[in-house]
Structure formats: structure tokens, C-alpha cells
Amino acid sequence: MTNRQSTRDLIRDLAAAPAPVPFNPVATAGGMLTLLVIGLVPFLAVSGLRPDLAAAWEQLPVQAKTVLPVLLSISAIWLALRSSRPEARLALWPLAVPAAPAIALVLWRLAGAEGSLLSETMGQTALVCLGSITLLSALPLAAGVCLLRRAAPTRPVLTGTLLGIAAAAGVTAGYALHCTEDSPLFFVTWYGLAIGIVGMTGAWLGHQFLRW
Amino acid sequence: MGMEVRLQQDETWEVLLARANDGDGAAFARFLHAVTPTLRAVIRRRGDGLPPDEHEDILQEVLLAIHLKRQTWRRDAPVRPWLYAVARYKVVDAFRRRGASVTLPIEDFAEVLPEENAAAPLSGRDAEVMLKMIDARSARLIRAVALDGKTAEEAGETVGMTAGAARVALHRAMRRLSDLAERMMK
Lengths: 212, 186
Prior knowledge:
The complex is a heterodimer of chains A (about 210) and B (about 190). By secondary structure, chain A is mostly helical. Chain A has nine helices and no strands. Chain A has helices at about 5-15, 25-45, 55, 60-80, 95-110, 115-120, 125-150, 155-175, 185-210. Chain A is elongated and about 80 Å long. Chain B is an all-alpha fold and about 190 residues long. The termini of chain B are far apart. In chain B, about 35% of the residues are buried.
């Protein structure tokens, strides 16, 4: 049924077809960032930056809960865009650069904590935190997956996961400017969980939409 | 192979693909002809368990993928690592799909469609449902090939497509059908 003549016909037809639209990594990262900001600005305008932001910024954990997600977002989007090329060889250690200090902060807090660790971990705003980060991540993640469909990732689930982590970590960095819970036990747990949920959503989207 | 176009000295794969991506169709045809023997060898080496006409099918899937993803090759990089990565991904994918319980549906359809309530995993009704889920022209092509035993050329004529265009459309439709079938089997 399928013979060499039909392969020659196919080649002739593919050669006559217009070249497909190229994948543009810069535009992809830019588009995701734009949508992320478009979501965050109204959120922060309505719910407000934390009132004591300037004073609180002196403390290391307060800096960490914005700076570490920024680092995570940058390394995840960088890896995601690299994974979009079929011949890419990926090493995932850049993700450990922000993750290691986060774990160190938790250990440091566990060593010095007094009172109930459980209530400190649960905090007051865990569900708001989870809900806000996941919802605000939806649009940038969806845009990232759409744009990556032009690329050729040979590990689509991994690429989708990285896109999810990049979007959620970016949102988290902004959300942290609103959030007044400064215990690493709280923010590493809940920010981490939110980023994980969006990462898993990205994995699913990758499986559905990034295979080719 | 008399039919394979011989490369001129300055026409490396890089030069050909770069020109192809700039819109030179003839260069793209020469590129595809040039890489075909290599791809055929790769597929033959991996595909002991499958009949040879399936090998040609897989080759065509790889060629189609090369076309669809050709812009992801960066022209400052060598072509070979890119090409082998694309081929590897598609070949692995193709063998996995054929190795799974759902093989490429065309032959299955020919057996299953005419009889009602067949006990096969893909019953006639499922096939009808699936055909409704793809666009009408592709469904007509599949019906013509699978039910009426027409060649792609004849099937293409019935919907006003050239043979090659019909073959590309068939490829895409079958890909979608096997995806649908996989989902329905879950």
C-alpha cells in the first residue's frame, strides 16, 4: 500500500508546501511575562501590597520569598525553551539553585523555632495563597503551551512541567509582595505546593498538546 | 539508488535546509531525498518486528515531521543532531503506537466496519463515532481507502485533491484517529 513511489510523491508535496511558522523563544517568554504582569497588576491593585513592605524587606526570609521564586521562574523558563529543540540535552540542576536555599531556610527555621510548628506552617492564608497563585498562573501557562506547539520538544511532559513551574514561580514572586506570612515553614510549603500543582497541570497540558 | 538525487559538492545538508527554510522548495525536496536513505536504514534497523510496508509508512511520518518542525533547526548548528533527534522521536513514537493494542487503524477498519457489533476492541460503531469527530473531507478519504479499497490517488480524486495532498491529509487523519482510538480505549 505504501511504497517508495508514494514517498517520492510525499516529498514533492512537502517541498511545495509553505515553510511553517518558526518558533520564537523570545516572543514566547515575553508573551508569558506580559500575561503574568497583566494578571498580577490588578490583583495587587485590589488586594494591595503588604503595608509594611519597606520595613519587612530588611529580613532575609521576606527577600527570599520574592527572590527565590524569581530565580526559579528564570531557570525554569530557560530550561523549557531549551527543551523545545529536539536535539537539546537538558540538565535540570539549575532548578536546584533556588530550591536549595529554600530548604536551608526551612531547616534554619526548624532549628530555631519555638511554639507550634504545625500552626506556623498552616498560617492564616494558605488557601488564598494556593488559589491566587494557581489562578493567576493559568493564562501565562496556557499561552506558553500554545506558543510551544510550534517548537519540537522531544520530552513534552517535561517541557510542560517546566512551563508550569516558570509561570507559577513568576506569579509567586509577585504574590509574595502581598503576603504577610514570613515564616519559611509557611511559604516554602504553600508556595511550593502551588508551584507543584501548576507544574503538574503543565505536565498534563504538555502530554495533551506538546506531542507531535 | 538511481532515484536518489546526488548532492553537488557545495550542497551540504545544512545549505539545503537553510535554503529550504528561506522558501526554496526545490532545495527542500533535494534535502528530503538526501536524508531518506539514512532514515530508511534507521527504521529498518529498529523495525524487525514490522512488515516492510509499515517501514515506508513510518518513513513518511518522519518526513512529514521534518517538514512541520524544520524551522526548529538553528542554522548555525549542524543538521545531523537535529535530524536524528526528530527521527528518533518520531520512530519511537510510531513503533510504540503500532506495538500497543491499537495499531494503525486502516486495515482494522476494513475488517471491522462492515459488521455490526463486532467484538473487536474498535467496533464499527466506535469507528463511525470517530469518523464523525474528524472533518468531513478527511472522513470521506478514510472511508474511500478503508471501505471501498481505493488507492490514495482515487480517494483524492473523489474529494478534489491531488494524490500527494490526499496522502498528507490521510496521514493527518489517521494520526488523529489513532489518538482518538487510544483515548476511547482508556
